Amino acid sequence: MNHLLSIKELTQQQLIDLLALAKTIKANPEDYRKALDGKSVVMLFEKPSLRTRVSFDIGINKLGGHCLYLDQQNGALGKREPVSDFAANISCWADAIVARTFAHSTIEQLAEHGTVPVINALSDMYHPCQGLADFLTLAEQFDDVSKVKLAYVGDGNNVTHSLMYGAALLGAKMTVICPQGHFPDGKVVLEAQAIAEAHGGELVLSSDVEAIAGHDAIYTDTWISMGDKASLDEIKAKFAPYHVDTDMMNKAGAKFFMHCLPAYRGVEVAAEVVDGAGSLILQQAENRMHAQNAVLVTLLS
């Protein structure tokens, strides 16, 4: 590993090793107190964040490293000076770059023009750190993650892409259920299906909510991000059949509910589900830090 730009760039063994290391760091934090001793990480954020910023900042500190946060008050990277200059200059001082951007091409430029590892903390195409945290969370619930049947319901997006790649690499089954016109990127789907086939997994896409039957966990994400030019009422009308409630959980036979947050209760998910006994949302949030720390240790130590 030179960078973490997308889960698709990992081998199956690299993904398994990252999840194992994350478990180890979580269980034995004192053993890693100096893992990043003397290392500095710059965080470049075009977008606001709660979980990503806090989990990286505190996680780097727990590993004995130093974190510097830079927001982009003037908008996207590259407006004030080229992304290539950002990457080259930061590489003179820092040991790694964590970037949360609008365009994935910005992440790629940082990796191309910098000389230090780059970690994608979210782009329009991928959210690999979230995907790693999610599969770490599932690995804590199931002895064999390859046997997990995961259903994603709602708007196909960057989180969906990372989940598909992760499930495919691990050889698990994943079903993506979206309304027409809101499926994940077609190229990503084909790539993930090929990876799944190579590792004994399965990726199924459907618009039929009845395809939810026979899954261990249901994952959803906010619908708000896809509605920049639509009213909330229009979004609700189109996505209403994909609202995750107790009835859907029961139809699926799903024990667990997952969400990358922020969650809008009464919109994409019912309050009794997101706050219920089977909800893994806080474990997912906590595991962002442990998964990211595994990536940092792998790249920098």
Automatic annotation (TrEMBL):
Domain Aspartate/ornithine carbamoyltransferase carbamoyl-P binding: 3-140
Keyword set includes Methyltransferase: no
A single cellular component GO annotation: cytoplasm
Catalytic activity from the UniProt record: carbamoyl phosphate + L-ornithine = L-citrulline + phosphate + H(+)
Residues bound to L-ornithine: N158, D221, S225, M226
Similarity comment: family membership: Belongs to the aspartate/ornithine carbamoyltransferase superfamily. OTCase family.
Name the UniProt record assigns to this protein: Ornithine carbamoyltransferase
GO molecular function: amino acid binding; ornithine carbamoyltransferase activity
Protein EC: 2.1.3.3
